[in-house]
Specification:
Elements: H1 2-15, H2 21-38, H3 41-51, H4 59-62, H5 67-76, H6 79-100, H7 108-127
Helix pairs in contact: 1-2, 3-7, 6-7
GO biological process, one term: intra-Golgi vesicle-mediated transport
InterPro entries: Cog5
């Protein structure tokens, strides 16, 4: 979805010609807002919990928090801490699957792992 949003933005932005100085500033501001919104992969990760099996607990369930408490916690944390929290739920789920002797994981498990594993790397490279 994020890829599609970026493609549409670029397509539409390239159609605006000529671009005044004010237009260039507005385009830069819009692109910065879009980058911030698309960079919020944690929204996507959290959505995957609704698509996963019951044994894959959300951070809210795992930490026995109300949704409001969890949202407030999210607002106060950096990406690396949020990923650690999400990763803990994935690790718990994987351990439970292995203990039960199951051969397959929920289809969302590898997706969440792949998306989440890339997040801290981006955070570190953005700080450099």
């Amino acid at each position: 979805m994020a890829s599609r949003v970026l493609i549409f933005f670029i397509r539409h932005a390239s159609l605006v010609r000529p671009l005044s100085e004010w237009g260039k500033l507005r385009m830069a501001r819009d692109m910065a807002k879009l980058e911030l919104a698309v960079g919020q992969n944690f929204v996507i990760l959290h959505h995957f919990y609704s698509r996963g099996v019951e044994k894959l607990q959300s951070p809210t369930q795992r930490n026995k928090l109300t949704p409001l408490q969890y949202l407030l916690w999210l607002d106060s944390q950096g990406k690396d801490q949020i990923w650690k929290c999400v990763r803990a739920t994935l690790d718990d789920y994987a351990a439970e699957v292995r203990v039960r002797g199951d051969k397959e994981f929920s289809p969302v498990y590898p997706l969440m792992l792949r998306i989440g594993s890339a997040l801290p790397e981006k955070t570190v490279s953005q700080k450099s």
